[in-house]
Design brief:
The complex is a heterodimer of chains A (about 325) and B (about 425).
Chain A (H helix, E strand, L loop, with lengths): L1 E4 H15 L3 E5 L15 H5 L4 E3 L4 H13 L3 E5 L10 H7 L3 H4 L9 E6 L14 H5 L5 E3 L4 H13 L4 E6 L2 H4 L1 E4 L12 E4 L4 E5 L2 H15 L4 E5 L2 E3 L3 H11 L2 E8 L4 H12 L9 E5 L9 H7 L3 H13 L1
Parallel strand pairs in A: 2-3, 2-4, 4-5, 5-7, 6-7, 10-11, 10-13, 13-14
Antiparallel strand pairs in A: 1-8, 6-12, 9-11
Helix pairs in contact in A: 1-7, 3-4, 9-13, 10-11
Chain B lengths: L2 E3 L9 E7 L6 E2 L4 E6 L4 E5 L4 E6 L6 E3 L3 E7 L2 H6 L30 H9 L18 H12 L17 H17 L23 H16 L2 E9 L1 H18 L6 H14 L5 E4 L2 E4 L5 E3 L1 E2 L4 E2 L2 E2 L7 H16 L5 H4 L4 E4 L19 E15 L2 E15 L5 H17 L8
Parallel strand pairs in B: 12-16, 16-17
Antiparallel strand pairs in B: 1-8, 2-4, 2-7, 3-6, 4-5, 6-8, 9-18, 10-11, 12-15, 13-14, 17-18
Helix pairs in contact in B: 7-8, 7-10
The chains are: A alpha/beta (about 325), B alpha+beta (about 425).
């Protein structure tokens, strides 16, 4: 297996799927000549030409709207929203059109689009380049939301997303792009959507998280291991549909659950995970479910000090884990 | 509604016992006004309010021992209640505010509050939860405690949780329960050292719950006797000159300085100078290493009504006799009124014990661990002694030294005592007080 960066894994998935199926094409701002602001689509226009790698004007509603239309015409579009923050002008297309396509047409039509969007902070992106958007969309039936945390999953889940017959939002934590490396299997493979992954086995506390949170939790867990606290970590990977079985198994493993995400707490993914546990695993709980999430402020601040205060880090996660273990 | 929590009253202090609530539920409280008295291993303190408002709820009752950080009471801040009542009428805040999320419940004593997982496991495995020691917060029995008990039961252990290493870290209330248990059993079966008729009923014995400070004294004394092999030696010193000198200057001293000139500062002065000469007495045996202290901090034993405290005169070698007199006076006053701060009781390197104050002429003090030695200064008494082959009436004092034989031997202890004695005997008309 080759060790690759998270961003390389995404690039490889796009390249291999485009090579495998000529209906697959990418569209978005600066994805062509520039190769993407983060260089995810670098080299694709040279390999596949400008008809399969479309540079778009700054109109996210058009990027998604055109993708939906192309999908209806038999294509498999992978739209890139340059930063997840910019997805909002396309929300009408995503929620009112793409998500309802199959339902509205009584199963005559489907909408096999993928919308990729880098999200999350910690890269000095300030208000409009740092937001976490996943909770806005996890509420919507008809959408699938994917947030890989490792290079292997990034590639495998993007392949699954492209092959999925319905709309998939593919959120990539931009802090992971170049900071995370991992082994990626050789050859063609895919990772199933809707399946969570146990990242670490433990029996004192359970941490349920996704994206960047997985790495913070793993880091914190290795510190806590030295203090005699054994941590079980579940990486959700898919936020809709949630892997309820895996969540309940992880919760029952220790009876003490901490949910971690960078997105703010109120009505976030953690709220849903916590409700699932409350509904189905009450008699296995040994402590109130805890959530560690970003603060309830409108956006990621620009000031480095405040950005640091906003972001989760290993210490914050470890502190919550300790408190839960102590309970 | 803000919580008032058990403060951390010192680095090594992990729990405190509620002494007396100075405010009742419903009382108005000003900011910084004392709410409650707290007793810890080391000091007694008052917990002030950080808020102005009304005391709405007391969560920990008098006598309960809780960990640092436990919520003691809740205070409705001034104006909070009226805001709540008119919440519907009030205009919504223009700012998105962080919602008031209740923190995870942390009951003061969580021993009798069980999680669903604990109840279910106990029921399924027929476990009596009252037999399990909780290792969770506030003594809470955790799911793992029950699992350990189930596991222990399978292996045929009769007392499940007691044998697990986890019970060592059991919380405050659990420890209290255990501490109380042997006391109660002593009450029923009289201790062998007391001569009692067989079949004595428990009514003949009053069982007292010792105060935290009493428990600490008990624990430390046992530890010291257990860890440090005590050796003991005594010398006598002729302090007739010192007695005469003090008699001459004490009235003047009191007038000038405002404090009594007792013998103790002279003894401390002599000890400090002798410690300078024999630094091995100013040392500690710690983890098979000898720590020789560069500062000389003299612990002085001060008896209060119900306990013994040992406040510390820091850097005693830098004080004159008058300075020592002031320091002793101040610490004694603080100790008797319970105002000693943590700083006042920490860092001692050698203890001087003024047993003469209550008329003792011979004592075998227990070392104030981890110090190397403790010196008892006995009563100064007039005795017939032989001076220059004639019998004379002199003021004599016995100096008793208990020493940790791990790092000190009789010879160095003897040298040290000799140095103290020589200095005491040299005090007289030429002595400089300031």
């Amino acid at each position: 297996m080759a060790v690759k960066q998270y961003i390389e894994a995404i690039h490889d998935a796009l390249q291999e799927e485009m090579a495998r199926d000529e209906r697959v094409f990418v569209l978005g701002e600066d994805v062509g000549v520039r190769g993407g602001v983060f260089r995810v689509t670098a080299g694709l226009i040279e390999q596949f030409g400008e008809y399969r790698v479309l540079d778009f004007p700054l109109t996210e509603s058009a990027i998604v709207g055109v993708a939906i239309g192309a999908a209806a015409a038999g294509m498999i579009p992978v739209a890139e929203i340059q930063f997840a923050d910019f997805i909002l002008p396309a929300v009408n297309q995503i929620i009112s059109e793409a998500a309802k396509f199959r339902y509205r047409s009584n199963n005559d039509w489907n909408c096999p689009i993928v919308i990729r969007a880098p999200y999350g902070g910690g890269i000095h992106g300030a208000l409009y380049h740092s937001q976490s958007m996943e909770a806005l969309f996890t509420h919507v039936p008809g959408l699938k939301i994917v947030t890989p945390s490792t290079p292997e999953d990034a590639k495998g889940l993007l392949v699954s997303a492209i092959r999925d017959p319905d709309p998939v939002l593919f959120f990539e934590h931009k802090k992971l792009y170049r900071s995370i490396r991992g082994e990626v299997p050789e050859g063609e493979y895919s990772t199933p959507i809707g399946k969570a992954a146990v990242r670490r086995e433990g029996d004192d506390i359970t941490v349920i998280t996704y994206g960047l949170g997985v790495h913070l939790a793993l880091d914190a867990a290795s510190h806590l291991e030295k203090e005699g606290i054994s941590t079980h970590i579940l990486d959700l990977r898919t936020l809709r549909p949630l892997d309820e079985q895996a969540i309940l198994e992880a919760a029952r493993k220790t009876g003490k659950v901490l949910i971690v995400h960078e997105d703010n707490k109120v009505c976030g993914v953690g709220a849903e995970v916590s409700a699932i546990i409350a509904e189905h695993a009450l008699f296995d709980l040994d402590a109130p479910v805890r959530r560690l999430a970003g603060p309830e402020v409108p956006a990621m601040p620009f000031s480095p000090t405040l950005e640091k205060a906003y972001m989760l880090n290993t210490d914050k996660v470890a502190q919550e884990m300790r408190a839960l273990a102590k309970f | 509604m803000p919580d008032v929590k058990m403060p951390q009253l010192g680095e090594s202090v992990t729990e405190g016992t509620i002494g007396k609530w100075l405010k009742n539920v419903g009382d108005k409280v000003s900011k910084y006004e004392p709410l409650v008295e707290v007793m810890t291993d080391k000091v007694n303190a008052e917990v002030p309010s950080d808020f102005e408002g009304t005391l709405t709820e007391i969560l920990v009752q008098e006598g309960e021992t809780v960990k640092v950080g436990t919520v003691l009471c809740r205070i409705a801040e001034a104006g909070e209640q009226s805001d709540a009542q008119s919440a519907n009428a009030a205009a919504p805040s223009a700012h998105p505010t962080e919602p008031q999320t209740p923190s995870a419940p942390r009951p003061a004593s969580a021993r009798s509050r069980f999680s669903p997982a604990v109840l279910r496991l106990a029921e399924e495995h027929n476990i009596d939860l009252s037999t399990i020691s909780g290792t969770g917060e506030g003594g809470r029995i955790t799911r793992k405690d029950v699992l350990a008990a189930i596991e222990a039961g399978k292996h045929g252990t009769s007392e499940p949780a007691e044998g697990t290493p986890a019970s060592v870290s059991a919380s405050a209330s659990a420890q209290n329960d255990r501490a109380a248990a042997p006391a109660a059993s002593r009450g029923e079966a009289a201790p062998p050292s007391v001569h009692t008729e067989a079949g004595q009923s428990s009514e003949d014995v009053e069982v007292l719950e010792p105060s935290p400070i009493r428990k600490t004294i008990a624990r430390r004394m046992v530890e010291s006797k257990h860890n440090a092999p005590h050796a003991w030696t005594m010398v006598e010193a002729d302090v007739s000159e010192l007695v005469a000198f003090r008699q001459r200057v004490k009235a003047d001293f009191k007038r000038k300085e405002g404090v009594d000139l007792t013998y103790l500062p002279f003894f401390i002065k002599a000890v400090v100078e002798a410690l300078k000469q024999y630094p091995m007495l100013n040392a500690s045996w710690v983890d098979d290493k000898i720590h020789v202290h560069k500062r000389i901090n003299i612990s002085i034993a001060v008896a209060t009504d119900d306990a013994l405290v040992v406040p510390v005169i820091h850097n005693a070698d830098r004080l004159s006799i008058a300075g020592l007199a002031h320091a002793v006076n101040e610490l004694a006053a603080k100790a008797r009124s319970g105002r000693l701060s943590l700083q006042d009781v920490q860092g001692g390197t050698f203890t001087v014990n003024n047993t003469g104050a209550f008329g003792s002429i011979l004592s075998q003090p227990i070392i104030n661990a981890p110090q190397a030695a403790i010196l008892s200064v006995e009563s100064i008494v007039k005795r017939a002694v032989v001076v220059n082959d004639a019998i004379a009436v002199r003021s004599m004092v016995n100096l008793c030294l208990s020493l940790d034989h791990r790092l000190l031997d009789g010879w160095v202890a003897g040298q040290f005592l000799k140095a103290v004695k020589e200095r005491l005997q040299s005090f007289g008309n030429d002595t400089v007080l300031f």
